[in-house]
Amino acid sequence: MKEELNRFIRIAEKLIEDESNHPVVKPADYDELLSYLDLELHDEAISDEAFEKALTDLVLRTPKTQSSAFFNQLFGGRRPKAYLGELLAVLLNTSMYTYKVGGPMIGVEKQILKNISRLVGFDKLTEGTIAPGGSMTNYMSMLMARDKFDPESRFIGLQKRLIAYTSEESHYSVKKNAAFAGFGRDNVRVIASDDKGKMRTDLLEQEIQKDLEEGYLPFYINATAGTTVLGSFDDLNAIAEIRDRYQLWLHIDAAYGGAVIFSSKYKHLISGANKADSFSINAHKMLGTPITCSIILTVHPECMYDSFSNDAEYLYQDDHDEINPGKISLQCGRRNDALKFWALWKSIGTKGIEQMVDHEFDLADYTRAYIRRNSDYQLYSFDDSINICFNYKEVDPEKICTLLNTKAKLMIGHGRFKENKFIRLIMVNSNNSKAEVDHFFKTFESIAEEI
Ligand code: ABU
């Protein structure tokens, strides 16, 4: 293994150097790209030299999501301590189903869950776990709600006409999950958002009433704290009131924006989160932890056991359910996604994480200020968000994003809200500074002028 660790360091050093010299990989068509690389699998072994070259070439041709020029998705920025935690988790190859196999890593996960629960402000006992991504934590919340409202569904399939509610700006997993959960995509009511991307609570209530009149069973609301396009936060207090009136399950999908729980300055955005039946947050988004680390908590621990536990004599041979998290997991084998986040949190403290979050918002403010004082730009997104959505002169957003990538200048995507299509810049890399923002605009404008 030592030899491979040395090889890892050699390749990693090349990657990090290449990343600072060429923050965007020169893209190529799929077939062309594969023709540069040695991906064939042969019957015979190859030499270590050939192996290292194949691996290095592959790594250096992979899109650089951790560089200073990556503004494309809701993650970015390598926090070294989190990466150290991840590398150790890989070496240990723990599976987080039992204390027997996971040992103290079960305690690491529980510590994170306890602290997140405290920061959300839950005053009840919560239970939680870590799942592979926000789609899956959304799914877990939906399954718990389904099983609570239609308990027979766990044994003989759906018996009730369940209806779920979410906003048009919510994550696309909500509809997929409705299909997986067996009540179907068409039984998700998609509620229009207001002009700032927040779910219209008046329409939410109207839809619930209509469904009740028609004999359906409204059971689940999925509210969003940090929408993918605008970074908007639903009005969680108003939605919780509706939940109380009609007795539904309220899940808060804070996969993206949940990081504000760490910030005294921005916590107000998520006011009401502590009223949720379940809450999810992704440490791999604003918190700079490697993909994936998606945390779900619920104030109904019994629902977590009802939906996810199953006996397996060959697995659960020791200890009690409380320290065998396989009993509340979606999966059987489960990566140790806790250690990387714990390593970051342990090293920089809650205050260090708060600084990261605030820094992302500061950079977003700086970016918006540039756009606002420059009449060539039009801004479509709002304050208190790290998503900056804009257009420049008459330039087609799709065209410029493609050109910036093909010229290996910047990685950035485009989005849509209502009738407007625009460039979407995600200011999620807390390693960046104002210098990278200035560089962004300089590069962006020079390529835009070519168009
Ligand atoms: N949940 C990931 C969404 C991806 C994106 O909008 O960048």
Going by CATH, the architecture of the domain at 94-343 would be 3-Layer(aba) Sandwich
Bound molecules: gamma-amino-butanoic acid
CATH superfamily (homologous) name of the domain at 94-343: Type I PLP-dependent aspartate aminotransferase-like (Major domain)
* Individual helix count: 15
Instruction: Give the fraction of residues assigned to helices.
Output: 40-55%
C-alpha Rg, in Å?
A: 23 Å
CATH class of the domain at 94-343: Alpha Beta
Low-confidence spans: none
What's the assembly state of these chains?
single chain
The helix/strand class is alpha/beta
End-to-end separation in angstroms reads: 51 Å
Look up the CATH topology of the domain at 94-343.
Aspartate Aminotransferase, domain 2
Name the helix and strand elements from N-terminus to C-terminus, one letter apiece: HHHHHHEHHEHEHEHEEEHHEEHEEH
Instruction: Indicate the proportion of strand residues.
Output: 5-15%
Taken from the alpha-carbon principal axes, the silhouette is globular
Instruction: Please list the strands of the largest sheet in the order they lie side by side.
Output: 1-7-6-5-4-2-3
How would you characterize the overall build of this protein?
With 451 residues, the chain is an alpha/beta fold. Among the domains are: 63 residues; 250 residues, Type I PLP-dependent aspartate aminotransferase-like (Major domain) (Aspartate Aminotransferase, domain 2, 3-Layer(aba) Sandwich). Helix content is 43%, strand content 13%. It has 15 helices and eleven strands. Strands 1-7-6-5-4-2-3 form a seven-stranded mixed beta sheet, with helices on both faces. Strands 8-9-11-10 form a four-stranded antiparallel beta sheet. Strand 10 and strand 11 form a beta hairpin. Helix 7 packs across helix 9. The longest helix is centred in the last third of the chain and has 35 residues. The radius of gyration is 23 Å and the shape is globular. The N and C termini lie far apart (51 Å). Gamma-amino-butanoic acid binds next to loops.
